[in-house]
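Sample entry (118 residues):
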Amino acid sequence: MRYLTVDGYFDGTGIRDAANGGYLEHDEVGISPDLSKRIDVWLEQYWKEFIKGFPDRDKVVELDEEGIRIARRLKKEFPEDKIGYFSDARMVALYDEKVHGGFRSGNDCRSKGKSEDG
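Predicted structure, serialized as tokens:
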């Protein structure tokens, strides 16, 4: 079992080894090509907002919701692993399956009627 955290840290891979530290390459994790592409697109959007200093709160919520959906999709691909999501914009864990089984913080983090894996 692995402990993995999805996050949008600038210049990271989007998947962090929560137990041992460091970022993991997508092929090293063994994720599907579709999920790998989805992470790459999400990271590009996250980094654009990072460079601007995260000025748009609604955009941050949108990006974090997609990050949570990515974490849930990762959990579907690897049900034996423990998966979390960390918002680099807010500096807080929003989804921690291994502890909370879902959202960790308030209303602005809830998915707005979207499916779990988008």
